Amino acid sequence: MKRFKAFVKKEFLHIFRDSRTMLILVAMPMVQILIFGFVISSEIKNASIAILDKSKDELTQEATQKLLSSGYFRLDKYLKSEQELETAFKRDRVKMTIVFEPGFAKHFYSDKTANVQLITDASDANTARILSNYASMILRDFQQSHNATIPNGNSLINTEVRMFYNENLDGVYMSVPGIMAMILMLVSAMMTSISITKEKEFGSMEVLLISPLKPFQIIIGKVTPYIFMALINTLSILAMGYWVFHVPIKGSLFLLLFEATLFTILALSLGIFISTVAKNQMVAMFMSMFALMLPTILLSGFIFPIENMPFPLRMISNIIPPRWFIIVVKKIMLKGAGIAYVWKETLILMGFIVLFVGLSIKKFKVRVE
Amino acid sequence: MISIKNISKSFEDIQAVKDVSIQIEEGELFGLLGPDGAGKSTLLRMVNSLMIPDEGTIRLWDLDPVKDYKKVRYIIGYMPGKFSLYTDLTIEENLEFFATVFGTTVEENYYLIKDIYQQIEPFKNRRAGKLSGGMKQKLALSCALIHKPKLLVLDEPTTGVDAVSRAEFWEMLQSLKEKGITIIVSTPYMDEAQLCDRVALMQGGEIHACDKPAHIVQQFQYPIRGVKTSNIYKALLDLRTYKSTHNVYPFGEFLHWVSKEQLFNDEEVIIFLKDRGHLNVQVRDIDPDIEDCFIELTQFNEKINA
Amino acid sequence: MHNQSHEINSTEPIIKVDKLVKRFGNFEANKSLCFHVDKGEIFGFLGANGAGKTTAMRILSGLSKPTSGEVWVAGFNVNTHPESIKKNIGYMSQKFSLFEDLTIWENMRFFSAVYSMSKKQFKERGQELLQELGIWEERNRMVHDLSLGWKQKLAFTVAIMHKPAIVFLDEPTSGVDPITRRQFWEMIYEASAEGITVFVTTHYMDEAEYCNRVSIMVDGRIDALDTPENLKKQFNALNMNEVFIKLARPAVNSSQ
Question: Per the record, a Pfam family (chain A) (predicted)?
Fold first, then answer.
């Protein structure tokens, strides 16, 4: 135990004395989440919209007036038919199209329910969400003021939001779990694989091997500081998401941290595995970049929705550990799910840990080649 | 006692160590002499349990580095070829780290490293990366010694180190030897042979001689002379064409000229050189040293590939 | 103790160093060095680790500028014409010699282009040099397949391929076997006989004896400079190793 403590102390000294490592460990998560958050959520003013008014009655014109005078929307054009929708989004770059059903006023007054469709370009998910929210709010306002003018006014304007291009509307909410997966991967897998191969490269691994330290002590000692760093990162990402971008944490924070720790251990075992294969720091770095970071960014559903991927890539995304972690985090944070809803993914993560730890133990050499 | 029997080791197509057998006595200061690529590091790594030989057996007292590697690692102090301490840790931190890792404390075995460590102690808060070559070496040796090993394995500790620090390092080894520690040290510097009890001359994975330095020198079978003229380089080229030359090569201030005939007259050599326009011709009796023996033993060994 | 008793060549020296000072912050790595090197000379540049050799070598080869003082190399001032100096020197060090993943011939072609030799010049000179070494047939071998000794001999060949005025050698024979070390020095003799000045550092004290003159740096100063023979007389020593230790030992210990 004393040996182990000395080892962990040494690892912390390495980390604290290398300003570049400290920068990656501390500053980068903050910067990442700020960049992602701010790029995605920008204040909306004068977003160009199109209107397809199939009713053209007094009520729809009044509603249109109300929407346009709010300051959030700028009318790009009136559409004549549904066929023009596609071009309106693609060529004219409107952010939203508002479709009033035929006989809107009639439905409103006699049937008590009139329908409006809000069709948004959800490839920019955040904007889409905000725009449709604003429009719904304005229409609800409009509905209330009209009900007040008529006796027994309890009619409803039913807004149906439809998303083009990104049906699930994943925006800044989506980026928090993704960033968490990426940062934990980077901190845990890349930094450990580099720090272990560094010892190989400098020759100090030979001295460690020849000491009475057991291989698992060397490995666990190397890895422990990074578990701490990863935990701190998880907390800071959650805190920033919560306070700066108002991403909710609906589920249990404890469960969330448990899953994050599980994922950290998985990433660490991946890092250890890489270090048993890589000869030097550069190889370790490239392996982490290409084998871990790129799939985490591209195939985990972080940036590109998995549903939209071609079949082979969808299959591959199954073996990308962060994919499962992102699902878990989303379920816990956004949907408030408990362990009953994430046990499957949790088991998959554990399975990966067993696999990589096993491979690393098999590959780790008590000798040099 | 260390016994190495018929050890061989290959890497892909290169045979790094070929059928090497050596006995090292307890308390001996044993030198492994040879250039880079001779197979010294590979041999030392097999002794210290970091590598498994393809063939042959090694015994460190009653321990087998292949089977009993865990026990072997308690009794060995090892300094690898590269400077292998943590450059971002201070002198003190490095020493304490290795002491703890080996299950001891700096205080417990301080008496062993005292002479060496005292020289660098005033700088104990300096990071190891900022030390001079000689100081790094002293720190590395202190770290290798801190757990009071029975056997010290040093891989080229003096390479790239200046002559003064080298001389000091050998003095330290001498005093460690007096404390009863068995030491195996490899070096490319032939002049360090005389500081060892026994040496093995290694080249191309093979041991070409293994004995006390004085005995190896006695085995040198040719007469040898130191030759000097006003133009050494021309003298070298001229002597190559001389009838009784076995070998001739530069050696410090003089050329070493090795005769293939046991009986000859120095005068003849002087006349030969004077005839070719050399001035200030000196021919003097010299004793061959280890480097002469090494050259003699390995001269037919030269290959282009590694 | 600057020993200038050595006979002064009638021709202009190829390296002239006058009151060279190099400071890094508070640390004075070179303390007013004064020396010269004659054309065709083999000049040994010795010193303990950290005595300031590398700093001085970097200045002489135009890689860094002196804090003060005048340095002339191959007729050019390092302060004003470092680029001209680089064209007229060759450089080889123990740390990097040749590209491991290129063949012998590819390495030579690359360096010939670096030193703007014409294709014709390169082919002639390259073939001549490799034939002298007896490895013309081996020219398409990868450098990483070669033994250290051959790598170093080739690196030297490449360093003098463009017939530089001076070649700087930084511990060229470190770790090389005794026979190859001597072959290497024969190549140095040969280059020197062709008029190339050789400026060399080494930790092998017997190699110091092969030099025409030797300087020994201690603590940023040149504390001795003369022929090996005179130095041995002056310090009442049997060989250069003794001279070196007598000079450098006090400094090495006090600097710690």
Answer: ABC2_membrane_3
